[in-house]
Amino acid sequence: MDILKKTIGIFSVLLVSFIQLKAQDLKQDPKLVRGKLKNGFQYFIYPNNTNNQQTAIQLFVNAGSLQEEDDQLGLAHFVEHMAFNGSKHYPKNEVITYLESLGVKFGADLNAHTSYDETVYKITIDSKSKENLEKALDIVSDWAFNLSFDSLEIEKERGIIIEEWRTKEGLSARLSDQTLPLIFSHSRYGIRKPIGTLDILRNFRRPTLVDFYQKWYRPNLMGLAVVTNQDPKAVEKMIKKLFGKAKNRKPEAKRISYSLANHTDTLFNIYTDKEANSIDFSYIGILPASKAVKTEADFFENLKRSTVNALLKKRFDRIAQLDDSYKSASMSVSDLLLNNGLSVGGATLYEGQIKSGISKYLKERERILRYGFTSSELSDYREQYKRQLQRAPENKELNANMMLSQLKDVFFTGQILMDKEARNGQILRDLDRLDSLNLLHHLQGYFKPGNTAVMLTAPERLMAEVPNESVLRQLFAESAQADLKKWTDHIEIPQQLLSDLPISGKVIQKKLINEVGVTEWQLSNGARFFLKKNDSRKNHIQLTAFRKGGFIAMDSSDYVNAVYAKNIIGASGAGAFTRAALTKFLNGNSASATFMIAPNREGLSASANQKDIKSMFELIYLKWTQPRVDEKIFGSIKKQGLDAARNKKFNVMDAYNQAINKAIGADDLDENTLSVERIEKDLQIDRIVPVFKERFHSAKDFDFVLVGDFDIDSIQAFVEQYIAALPTGYYRSEQRIPAYKQRQDQEIVQYAGQAEKATVNLFYQTTSTHYDYPEILKNELLENVLKVKLRKNLREEQSGVYGVGVSVSATSEPTDLMRTRINFTCEPSRAEFLIGQVQIELDKIIKDPSYFVEELNNAKVQMHQVYDKQFGKDTFWSAELRNHIYYGFV
Fold first, then answer.
1. Three-state DSSP class for 110?
2. Cβ–Cβ contacts within 10 Å for residue 610, how many?
């Protein structure tokens, strides 16, 4: 009896200790400065102690469309728009004009969004000086508490928001209208779409809009996140000064927390549409939102969920390599809304295989839910994750957007922000605690029967093939009763990437380009190798290679094979390795190498952390010299290509796009002619490797650019062993230069689609251009000036568009070409008028340089800031060196 009591006592102590361990609170990142003002306003400040002299700010409002009254549908979103149309200290559009003068780009650096239960405002600003930061915070303070709601500005914004609504109209909107009622059935979400209704958007009165703002924009429903290069304590003082005096308006409206309605059944919706060009089967289950991560137990639960998602993706990726019953498939779990998560899954199907594809998918889904994951799948993932954490390069720069996303979770859910090292350490400890049985229970909890919506959408022309609800229910029942075995996947893995070392070549000449700190090596096989040491990412390198050639240096009869060669070769593995074997061999290894054949060049992109540099060079040599084609992969990719070409002609925009391509393209170019007949006839399995080898059998004239943190002596040994060892010799370099014609003005009008909207594209192009670095800068400046001028006219003055797209580009390869594209969506009856406004703006810019001085100066400031932000990164040097070498600027 005493022994039993002692045993029980010891067990009780251990149990209490275990529970306490599991409930142990996570420690907040000590670098985070957070607080709550007397009025309830919360703030979160995180230091960005890098060379990035910018501050990223987000204002969180704990209110969205769910808080709207019946006569306010769409007004939460409308309030968000009005923040850029006048406040106490910044009338009309002055806030945009002022911020643009500081280098802020509207859209990229200055934006906002409204959803069901939140509104978020965003600014990223140069903050070398405290004055800029304080001004930005002053603007945010005005957004929070002092919007003007000028009547004239409201009327202008009506048109802009109606045009935003119009951009969403069409097939995607109709599909959404079919899907959302099932998910949001019998809940407030179903009657509170953030965009609202046209009737209310057109007819609401100013007091109704102001009422929403005054009711919900109050300090105790707000939070501010700041990621900054400035002293957090100084920023904290600014926040207290600017946000501390605001009061919560009385009486306070109660902030009700809404959830989706639960139901016990599985709801079905089968929808066909004339404009649909894919067949999609999906199901969505409603879950409670995942618990905010505050304790070690929460952290472990979150890791289980992320592990389940990762393993589900890997399983379905593997199935796609083995079976072509459907194009693609997935299962996953995510948080959609503040109070709800979703378990989702589905497959994109082939015409002629709708029923069989759904059946196959449901059986694979059932196999996973019945047996879970194998110990091999879990151990591979665990090892991969550990090696990724252990080998991750030291990135000097903090990702401000990622940090803001985490701070948003801190505000809305109460989640604990962990220090990176502490988080990684917790992951490494918890990974060892994962087991297959535990994950299976977790997985089954996510995908329980009931509380689910099932959707099947397809082109209307396939209606006869589309199964009805009764058939779908039968397929679910059959999969639940199916005789399914546990998942097995035996993969033979060679012991090493290369069975024999290649005969090494030599670096035969060295040259130092002092101006940019670049070393150039001439290799014995005729290739050049450029090296730039850079430590913006510690222990990491990236390598690119390129040579003029591509599709237009090949016989036109092999065009289709050349287009598909990259994907087929890339998905087939290399040498003795199947794709699956290569993936498994490189599990946790950071080395990667991807080859490409483009219209006018061929090349590769590779990268690795320092510990895996040798693997990277071996991988390049293996893929370069031993390409292979997997018959199943070829068949699957060809099948997908045929399906895409078959469906393309049913796309309402296809005739329009083809007419544009014919008008602006070269008459003698093969591009955009991948018809069903051509793919069927020309895409041949026995031509894929020869086509690849035609472009890669010789390394002569290839230029390699290596950027990163490396030891030059070690790199030379690898370069001589693997890159200089690549084969050399003759290769076909003569290109079929496309002949772009100088055409007269041409108008293309295409009537298609069910939505009341016009899609407008304006092209201006010339072959009279001198492509060099000054020309690139001029084009970028012109593009930025046009974006602002057209935004001011078409959006802000005319209320005719939601946005205007502008691109100004030029090239000298394979021939001189400069092209400007201006595009927008609008009400059909206003298209001609708005096109006229575009031409008016272009004429003013052409004739009067003084007309765009302000916009030009702002564009210069923006370009300087982008340059300052990008300069010094590996990606900056890699792109700059590649472009200078390829276009002959060096």
1. strand
2. 18
Mean pLDDT value across the chain: 93
Share of the chain residues as helix, strand and coil, in percent rounded to the nearest 5: 50, 20, 35
d(CA 12, CA 64): 48
**What is the domain partition of the chain in residue ranges?**
33-145+153-242, 266-481, 507-723, 758-874
Beta bridge mates, 152: none
- Same CATH fold, 266-481 and 33-145+153-242? yes
CATH number of 266-481: 3.30.830.10
Alpha carbon distance 98, 594 (integer Å): 44
Q: 232 — phi, psi (to 5°)?
A: -55, -35
Preceding amide of 449 cis, omega within 30? no
Q: What is the mean pLDDT of each run of 10 residues along the chain (890 residues)?
A: 41 43 83 98 94 92 98 99 97 95 94 98 95 97 98 98 95 91 90 96 98 98 98 97 96 94 92 95 94 95 96 96 94 91 96 98 98 95 90 74 97 96 95 94 91 96 97 97 95 95 97 94 98 91 97 92 96 96 94 96 96 97 98 96 90 84 74 83 97 97 97 96 97 84 71 87 90 90 98 97 96 91 96 97 97 97 90 91 86
The CA distance from 839 to 21, in Å, is 69
| pLDDT tens-digit series, residues 254-294 | 999 999 998 888 999 999 999 999 999 999 999 999 999 99
**Rounded distance between C-alpha atoms, residue 56 and residue 235, angstroms:** 12
Pick from 503, 750, 792: nearest CA to 651: 750
List pLDDT tens digits, range 74-104.
999 999 999 999 999 999 999 999 999 999 9
Q: What kind of fold does domain 758-874 have according to CATH?
A: Cytochrome Bc1 Complex; Chain A, domain 1 (3.30.830)
CA angle 665, 670, 676 (to 5 degrees): 115
Mode of pairing for the β-strands spanning 452-459 and 266-273: parallel
Q: Which of 39, 63, 427, 9 is nearest to 219 (CA)?
A: 39
Report yes or no: 800 and 794 within 8 Å, Cβ to Cβ.
Answer: yes
- Domain 33-145+153-242 is found in CATH 1.20.1730.10: no
Whether the Cβ atoms of residue 877 and residue 803 lie closer than 8 Å to each other: no
CB 612 within 8 A of CB 708: no
Q: Helix 631-648 and helix 296-322: axis angle, to 10°?
A: 90
DSSP sequence for 800-857 = --S--EEEEEEE-SSS-EEEEEEEEEE-GGGHHHHHHHHHHHHHHHHH-GGGGHHHHH
Domain 507-723 has CATH 2.20.28.90: no
Report d(CA 125, CA 137) in Å as an integer: 10
CA distance 294 to 703: 51
Task: Say which amino acid occupies 570.
Answer: G
**Taking the CB of residue 864, how many other CB atoms lie within 10 A of it?**
12
